[in-house]
Amino acid sequence: MIKKFIRKILGVKEDGRDPTQPVILGPEEHKIDPRNVSRNAVTVTQTLQEAGFKAFVVGGAVRDLLLGVKPKDFDIATDATPEQVKRLFRRAFIIGRRFQIVHVMFGQDLLEVTTFRGNGSDNAPKDEHGRVLRDNNFGPQHEDAARRDFTINAMYYDPATQTVLDYHGGIEDIRAKTLRIIGMPEARYREDPVRMLRVVRFAAKLGFTIEPTTRAPIPVMAPLIDNVPAARVFDEMLKLLLSGHALACLKELRSAGLHHGLLPLLDVVLEQPIGMKFVTLALESTDGRVKAGKGVSPGFLFASLLWHQVLEKWNAYRAAGESPIPALHLAADDVLDTQTENLALQRRIATDMRDIWAMQPRFERRTGKAPYKLLEHPRFRAGYDFLLLRCESGELPGEIGEWWTAFYAAEGGEREALLAAANARPRDGESGQKRKRPPRRGPRRRNEGEGDQAPATNSARGGGEE
Ligand code: ATP
Ligand code: MG
How remote is the CA of residue 338 from the centroid of ligand 1, in Å? Predict the structure, then answer.
């Protein structure tokens, strides 16, 4: 009785686990391959430990190590303050306001070193919805563990002793492939609504199941994401889309009730049946590239996700009497304006998107010098990949993509022959049916046969018709 009372005030959990005492696992139990731990991570933990501090690899890196995956980056947790950390390394910078952390650089490699956070977030400044605005209260390691989001993200690995410290049953959840939030789910989502997006991303990426009480509040609490600064939501969206499991993530977002009305981009993407095929292809190809270790350009990705919105507006402007090229630019402006506001699309990404879109009608102009000029465009490759997606989705005849593939690969005289062949081909397509041409508006420009715009007009009515 008295024991139970004492346990209660000490905060011992119902399952009998004392949250201040970690389960400690040795190498035979956790089976982490030390070769998967980066040398720089070992240098950082060792340097801190030699200076008398505690230091561990923490978070996603430990999770990945336990899953036998080589982590892509290493976060370090320590009881040294940011100032103390900074003094120990030649290239170390204190960054951040909301959470102060230290960036330690080794050449191109960057490690984030975080001081253990205490559970003082009860007193931390919050917004009117309960979102924690700043949290720089330092505290003991067990409090740092309790502040982390999911049990599988709250383990610590010491490379020196090769031990894992587990405060919240993370190892069991890893084995059972379960995503479980630490603490009361509602309270944790209120403190930081981005956790709802994180759980979905991890579930899709790791193929884990979201434990029912962790999942239950999400559809109800989803609107809280609206109060999170757009730049942070955008970062998380980017992580989600570049996780190598973007399609699975979007499906999971939908099934968790997270896509609706919250993320303007996803609303657009998931609710346009015409664009669905295009978007699915784009995401499949993105996932494929990420899994193959190839780079993905966020500009290309967002250009794909929003293309059908651009098409729709492009079509509307032309119906209102604009000529094709200015109409395309107006449509791009509209889409970018809305999305920049909602999503904090960085300017560089927006510029890439505009370039990719603006190039598209030029692929349909296969006369004179135009194709040669297009080849010299600094973003030709992205525009060409985008064109292939349009062909693959059925928006454009496959022949255009094939022609460009040949033209791109060809040398010298072969290109002339390809051009001649393209011009010899009847303009009204393989089927022999005449395409409807838009009524001519404004003066015809030199080298800009309007007949070449016809396929775009067709596509602007919506993909998948051909
Ligand atoms: P990955 O880097 O593979 O996306 P990760 O788990 O390492 O996954 P990070 O964003 O790098 O994710 O965060 C590192 C760690 O910090 C997490 O593992 C978690 O312990 C903690 N963390 C990150 N974001 C939050 C959050 N919003 N709430 C609570 N803890 C968080
Ligand atoms: Mg990480």
Answer: 29
